[in-house]
Design brief:
The chain has two domains: 137 residues, Lipocalin (Beta Barrel); 109 residues, Lipocalin (Beta Barrel). The N terminus is likely disordered. The protein is built from one helix and 20 strands. It is mainly beta.
């Protein structure tokens, strides 16, 4: 076989793979339907540990922080956290990474101290942002921000997920809710996740279960974490992502509509 023939075959194969990826039925822009998706149990805990120091657990483990407005090491993926007491009933929480603001959360207590409103804004790598106001009710504690707080709606705010071709024979899942892009190929290999919020050692792999179903396995430093089963409706207009989270008996179902 001549080099010219080999080159033509390789180019032809690449073109076919690129065309396949572009025509993959999962490719498109998908918007979460909060009303169709699972409700979630959202809890955060704030514990006073003396002086201006607090232990705050947003659900991923406690972080110790002095509420003095300064930037301090956070507990998630090399992030920086600050908490500013703007008034007895108002705190501002800011999380950064590599000098860039990832999120701001303005907390406001009700006059009776029984509810907390979290005015939450998340910033994405493309310069866009999203804002949602989470209502919480107190389930422990008596006054101030110290206590246990639970989201009273359970709804996941709407966000957009984009699925694009990746290097001809793979797919990119670009999630605007967490700023993570999962670039994967159908070869059984683990590929590093990318994005400002990605912890070191975070990877994803994908396999095609059938024509309308994919399975993405997430890992952290080689240990299996969240598994995502992604199913496309027969008409191609709805995508359901079922999250299987270690330690949780019930999966979370996210339903997206094609845009």
């Amino acid at each position: 076989m001549s080099k010219r023939t080999l080159s033509l075959l390789l180019i032809g194969g690449l073109a076919t793979a690129t065309l396949w990826a572009a025509n993959d039925p999962f490719v498109g822009e998908w918007k979460l339907s909060s009303s169709k998706s699972s409700k979630i149990f959202d809890q955060m805990k704030v514990e006073s540990i003396g002086g201006s120091k607090y232990s705050i657990d947003f659900g991923g483990g406690p972080e110790t922080i002095a509420a003095d407005g300064t930037d301090q090491p956070g507990g998630y993926g090399g992030t920086i956290l600050s908490v500013t007491v703007e008034a007895p009933d108002a705190w501002k929480v800011v999380r950064k990474k590599d000098g860039k603001v990832l999120l701001t959360a303005n907390w406001k207590l009700s006059k009776d101290g029984k509810t907390l409103t979290d005015d939450y804004t998340q910033f994405y790598a493309d310069g866009s942002s999203s804002n949602v106001k989470y209502p919480y009710k107190r389930t422990a504690g008596t006054s101030g921000f110290a206590g246990t707080w639970e989201n009273t709606t359970g709804e996941i705010p709407a966000f957009v997920m984009k699925v694009q071709p990746y290097e001809g024979d793979g797919l990119s899942f670009i999630d605007s809710s967490d700023g993570v892009t999962r670039n994967v190929k159908f070869d059984g290999k683990d590929y590093p996740n990318v994005g400002a919020n990605v912890p070191v050692g975070s990877t994803s792999s994908v396999r095609r279960v059938n024509e309308h179903t994919l399975e993405i396995t997430g890992k952290s430093n080689g240990k299996v974490g969240v598994t995502r089963e992604i199913a496309l409706s027969s008409d191609g207009k709805t995508l359901t992502m079922t999250l299987h989270i270690p330690g949780q008996t019930e999966p979370i179902a996210l339903v997206f509509d094609r845009q």
